[in-house]
Structures are given as structure tokens and as C-alpha cells.
Amino acid sequence: MVTWNNLDTLASFQDLKKADRVNLVEAMAGENGAKRVKNYTIPMAEGFAFNYAAKQVDDNVLEALVKLAKEAQLSEKFKAVYNGEVVNTGENRRVLHHMTRGQLGQAVEADGVDKRKFYVEQQERIADFANKVHAGEITNAAGEKFTTVVQIGIGGSDLGPRAIYLALENWAKKNNTFKMEAKFISNVDPDDAAAVLNSIDVAHSLFVLVSKSGTTLETLTNESFVKDALKNAGLDASKHMIAVTSETSPLAKSDDYLAAFFMDDYIGGRYSSSSAVGGAVLSLAFGPEVFAQFLEGAHEEDKLSMNEDVLQNPEMLDALIGVYERNVLGYPATAVLPYSQALNRFPAHLQQLDMESNGKCVNRFGERVSYPTGPIIFGEPGTNGQHSFYQLLHQGTDIVPLQFVGFKNSQIGTDVVIQGSTSQQKLCANVAAQIVAFACGKSDENRNKNFEGGRPSSIIIGDQVTPKTIGALLAHFENKVMFQGFLWNINSFDQEGVQLGKVLAKRVLAHETDGALKEFSDLLNI
Ligand SMILES: O=P(O)(O)OC[C@H]1O[C@H](O)[C@H](O)[C@@H](O)[C@@H]1O
């Protein structure tokens, strides 16, 4: 049995607070720094390594973190998740996204079916459908092949699949598995749908309507927008649209779609990339085999998250260090900095994953917690970020912990040698340089040119962005966020915070406003 306790009631947390602070500038200097880089690293799946040499920890702090992990029962709580216990107590639901990519624990039967079987069945239905589209067996009304797939969805029904599509687009082209171009419509801003529709050939486009709830205003509005465009082009919308939704949603039984694929209530939106939500668009774009490889990578990383040896469990340790930074060192934010253009939208996905999961001020029992929870997450790919907000990261008044991701190889392979180095080498040189610059700083008599250092970072290093590695990376962050939620004793799997704005927007549209809401409605000409 697991017990859910607030972080500040745990004896090991009080001990952690008493542990001597690490002076990162000193720790990372000279031979000692080199030793840390060699020793403070954990192998991950698919050739990745999680290196935390430049984090503000030493053996003493690590020992305290290991004790905290034990007392907070992190492994047992993960077990409760993958064995199908109702850990999403706010919504009274199980949390089964790990099961979309493999079986970690016992079989889970819910709603009268074996859940693993259900997810696999949906994957197989999607694979079959995608193969038929690629083979020209499922076509438009004129019998011509579909060439483009357009996903309509928002939040978890957009960000993850979009980030993964962009991450693998060039890889798939290079490896001859690129089947269909994918586009995404998410915003209710009419310019989003209009711009995408202007950029495609609608007659040869297949639209994937993705909404777990089937009730999201933006998505349903964009569906109508697209249906209008199809009608105006003289096309039958139901021959151009498939749906991905939960079996209980209002969309599930509609005849408006060529086909419908299902997830269920046990897959949170932001955790749904490995379900039919990511499966449909990614299988259509790159082929089902590529999607299967992505799932394999995620499953391999999930297995590492089960390791009860904290110092061999990359997700658990990453989570613990993050909580140390937030709750003991008092740092307010975390920047995610992938040194890879392919991961252009990955920080946006992580923003939802992390901030929607752990942006909570009450614990699992609805009581206010008296310590900070989820940090502000932001990020951009390097080196672009360096020429933008790194100034604040290096010399600003706040210390922002950094999470770098770097790859030894580019995806496309086209490169150029300028001044003795390739662009890929320049990219990697920059990330190595940044880690040391942030940690060690550089003194200068001119205060303006002085770098205090002591700014902690970790790096995940891999070979290349591939279907398997992106799967492992995604699982790493999903599980890190989950472990942090356990430590803070919050429910990381609901998102009540998005409701109020939705309710008020409806009132504005119904002209049922007064006070400030009415004034703002008038200012915006609604
Ligand atoms: O997939 P849907 O039900 O349309 O939901 C789309 C998104 O909207 C909601 O407001 C939630 O904040 C997100 O967690 C969710 O991913």
C-alpha cells in the first residue's frame, strides 16, 4: 500500500534541506569537474545518457535524494500507476498511457476489456488504415491517392504529435519512409485554419479530427471550418475525415467520418502521443512501422523508470534534482534547451506536459500545500536561444536551472566544413561551452563582464533524433513529471485550471456579461 504525504511532512525532506549546499563553481573546476562529468551520468534507453555533473549536487545531496525517493515511495507509486490503480483521484480514473507502448506490470481489465489489448487493437486498426491509404486502397471520391494529412486538435491533441512529426520529418525523408506531408490546425483564430487550407490541395487531403473529449470548442469550430472548405470545393467531407476520440465522446458514434479510432479516459491529453492521438497522424505521415519504433523507444525508457536503484533511474533522479532545486534552492523556472532543430516544438509540448500536470496548489486531498510545486517551463532550440534569452540566464538576478538535450549526429547529414569544423561540431561545441560557462562563470574586474557562474544544468546526450530516440525522450519527460507530482503529493493527471476561462468565454459569446467582463468584451468588439 502506498501512502500519500505532503513533501514537507517527510523526515528525509527535512534532512535534505540541512545538507550542505554545493558550490558549483568550485565543484566543476579542474580535475574534480572532469571527474564529475565522468561519474555523474546514467545510461538511458536508445543510447542516451543523462549527465548531471553540472547540477548543484554532490554525493551527500544525492544520498539525501535517494532517501527521499524511498520515503516518498516513488517506485511503489509508479507501480500503482502501471498496475492500473485509480491514481487520478480528481477524475476518478486510472492512468494508463504507459500501456499504449507496452506492458510494465499486471494486466489491467477495465470497462470489461483488457486495456493493453484494446490499445494494441487500435494501433493495428490504424496501421491497417494507413497502409490502405498509402497503397491507394482508401482514396478520395475520385479514386485518387491522399497526399496530405491535416490534424485538427488542440493542447494534448496537437502539441505532442506535432512536435514528434516535426522531429521526424527530415529523418523520414532521408530514410525513405516519408509517406504524406502533415499539417496541423489548432488555434480557433480563423487565420490558422485559413492559412493551412490555403497551403494544401484539399481534394487530396485527409483530415484527422482529434479530440479526446469530443467537446473542445476550438477543435469543433475548426472541424466546421474545414467541412465548409470541403463543401465549397464540391467535396464530401465525410470522405475526407477520420476521428480520434475516446469511446465515450459524442464523436465516437458519428457517421461523419471515414473511420474512427479510439483512446479512452485513462489516457490524459498531454500523455496521449503514444495512443491513437499520435498514432493516426504519425502512421499516416511516416508509416506504421515508424510509429511502432517510436513506441518501442518509449517503452524501453519506461522500463528504466521502474528501476528501484534511484541512481540508475534517469527519470527519478532528474525529478528529485528538480524538486531539490525548486523546494530547497528556491529556483522558480526550468529551461528546456534542445540543441537540435528537429526538436523545434518539443519545448512547447513539454510546457503543457509539465505545467498542466504540476501547476497545482492543492494536494491530492484538495488541501492547500505550503511549498512551491511545478516550475515555469520554457525553451527554444540552441543555438537560437543563445542569441535571445541566454543573457538573463547567464547574468540575470534569477537562477534558472537548465535542461540541455544534445545529439552527436545531424539527421539529414548534409554539412559543411568552415574554419576547420562542421556545423554539427559547432552546434555540439556550443552546448559543451554553455554548460561550463553557466556552471563555472568567469570573473572580471568589470562587473558588467563578470559571470558569477553557479547556474546548474543537466544534459541528455544521444546519437541522433530517430523514432526510437524521440520515443525515449518523450517517456523520460513524462515520467519525470509524474515522479515530481508524487513528491509534491499533487494529482498530475487532471487539469481543472483550464475550466474557468472556458466558462467565461462562453458567457461573453452569449452576451451574458457584466462588470469587467462586459467592458473587456466591448473593448474587443464582441
Ligand atoms: O482532446 P480534447 O478533449 O479536445 O482536449 C484538448 C485539450 O483541451 C483541454 O482544455 C485541456 O487543457 C488539455 O489537457 C487537452 O489536451
TrEMBL record:
Keyword terms: Cytoplasm, Gluconeogenesis, Glycolysis, Isomerase
GO MF annotation: an example: glucose-6-phosphate isomerase activity
Coarse class of the protein's main subcellular location: cytoplasm
A single GO BP: glycolytic process
Annotated metabolic or biological route of this protein: Carbohydrate degradation; glycolysis; D-glyceraldehyde 3-phosphate and glycerone phosphate from D-glucose: step 2/4; Carbohydrate biosynthesis; gluconeogenesis
Residue positions of the active site: E356 (proton donor), H387, K502
Protein's name in the database: Glucose-6-phosphate isomerase
Lineage: Bacteria, Bacillati, Bacillota, Clostridia, Lachnospirales
